[in-house]
Design a protein that fits this description.
17% strand; 3-stranded mixed beta sheet; alpha+beta; 3-stranded antiparallel beta sheet; globular
Length: 303
């Protein structure tokens, strides 16, 4: 597979960082993330599009939704905002201040945090979807300072030293209705079994972010992202940003907040990060939390 065009392509969002200089300061970046967190009913990409068009918007919906669900109509001459829609080019939404009608529910304007309570159903959904992307979930008796890690399930064969013997049972079974699907195990996510569910959940998000942002740089990386070799600080900042964004959009506390606050408090220059990777990774993880995803074709073991 020729990955050179992919690795050399400059994403439109990333050009805002590297060419225009938008969001290079941490306070500007955090303002963007704070905005995206307020629109969990739209994908991270669409929330970013809204920010680019109208940073001060409050709550947006299509004209039909305003009328049916909120009994509000669009004002004459209202300016629509553009979002991406599945199976189509674009859709048009309108901000609250472009509508008239019944009073708008105040609770929808001020999302609240649950303080760290992870809904059991969403936690189980995320873990049950891990095999679909080639990940085996495991818990280990780590010390208090070790939250978890993601690692290749087996060492690649083309390295200088002899490969590590293949671990037992490098496939796992996914039960789909009336039949079994055997899937390859590409990676293990291992978490600290001594931690609470509320601590384990953001750990899984953080490790998935490393995978989807292309930080692992092994033989399977191209299945999930462009191969992007970055230094440790850049990788951690991207992974922490993804974990923070997903948790905030769910209304739950996460430890990434302290990490990012260290940058925003100093208004420091951001590391060499990819906004494209952060938003796309957050979107993929949210799909794993809320939907039943299909196994990627490359890991299905043919009978």
């Amino acid at each position: 597979m020729n990955t050179k065009p992919e690795t050399e392509a400059i994403q439109a969002l990333d050009s805002l960082f590297h060419e225009v200089g938008t969001y290079k300061k941490s306070t500007e970046y955090m303002q963007l993330l704070e905005f995206i967190r307020k629109f969990p009913y739209y994908s991270p990409y669409n929330a970013h599009l809204l920010y680019m068009q109208k940073p001060g918007c409050h709550y947006v919906a299509m004209a039909s939704t305003w009328e049916k669900e909120f009994k509000r109509t669009i004002k004459p001459g209202a300016r629509p905002l553009i979002i991406l829609v599945p199976f189509g080019p674009v859709g048009y939404v309108f901000d609250l201040d472009e509508t008239d009608g019944k009073p708008f529910p105040d609770n929808l304007l001020h999302p609240f945090k649950t303080g760290g309570s992870i809904p059991d159903g969403l936690y189980r959904k995320l873990v049950s979807n891990l095999p679909c992307i080639g990940i085996r979930y495991a818990e280990a008796d780590y010390g208090s300072q070790m939250a978890g890690k993601i690692e290749p399930a087996a060492e690649p064969k083309d390295r200088g030293s002899p490969p590590v013997p293949c671990k037992r049972n490098q496939t796992q079974i996914l039960y789909k209705k009336s039949h079994e699907v055997h899937l390859k195990v590409l990676y293990n996510i291992i978490v600290n079994k001594n931690h609470s569910k509320n601590d384990i959940f953001p750990t899984i998000l953080h490790e998935l972010a490393h995978l989807f942002c292309g930080h692992l740089n092994d033989e399977h990386t191209e299945l999930f992202s462009k191969i992007r070799i970055k230094n440790r600080r850049d990788r951690e900042f991207e992974a922490e940003s993804v974990a923070w964004l997903v948790c905030e959009r769910m209304g739950i506390y996460n430890p990434s907040e302290k990490y990012l606050a260290g940058y925003s408090g100093k208004n420091a220059t951001l590391p060499d990060i990819s906004l494209d990777c952060i938003l796309s990774s957050a979107g993929k993880i949210e799909d794993m939390i809320h939907k039943n995803i299909k196994p990627i074709k490359d890991i299905i073991v043919k009978e």
